[in-house]
Amino acid sequence: MKKQLSMKPIIFCLLFLLAAHANTKETIIVGLAHFPPFIEARSDNVSGLAAKMLDLMNHHQNKYQFQAIPTLPATRHETFRLGRYDMSMFDNIAWGWQDFNVDASDVYLQGGEVYITQAISGRDEAYFTDFKGKTIIGIQGYHYKFAEYNADEEYLKQTFNMQLTKSNLGSIKMLLSGERGDIAVVSMSFLAKYLKDNPSDRNRLLVSRKLDQTYQHSIILRKGIKPTIEEINTILTELTQNGALQKLWKSIDPNSIYPN
After folding, report:
1. Could you tell me the pTM of the whole model?
2. What is the pLDDT averaged over residues 160-178?
């Protein structure tokens, strides 16, 4: 008499495969260029507020797995053009994306950049009204309003005698050295963190009330892919409504850069 084959193991395997398939998320590569305190991108490691925000986005929904890779400020647009990533964070459409086939999400955080100089007796806000004859310090690959958002290094050096560094920290250190620059442009959020970590430097710096630019952080997404920009906006809205994003922003207090 032939032994009848049980269907239970087969059914179990099919259910297991269906469940595994249902739980598989589509991976979205996110290119992040060093931009503290929002993005800390060194070697293969990415941290900072962007990494925490991606964790929130990954845990909030079951369709997509957002995976960060480090990029460089000076080459990130070319890297995007080559298809090595499809999404950028803490970005702005005006920062070199105008000629790309991309969408921009709703704004989820506002920020700005200020000018700083060494605090010298008799120096005040008027020092920031005219850059003629002064050496400006900025970050390689960054777009500044005073330069009409032109990030070309030769243009910046010839027009503004600009000294370029790799980071906000490098800009501050170069300025405080007193050897290679008169005015540095730094993000308000980074400066707030720097002064919190280095309170002895507060009296060494004069911070402008004048802003180089205010910017609105959004997500830049390649058109024609999944997720759509509408899906990204839905995620951002829900993370705002449940208070998750506000908790991230508590670590940034731009008002603290000015004396009480």
Report:
1. 0.71
2. 92
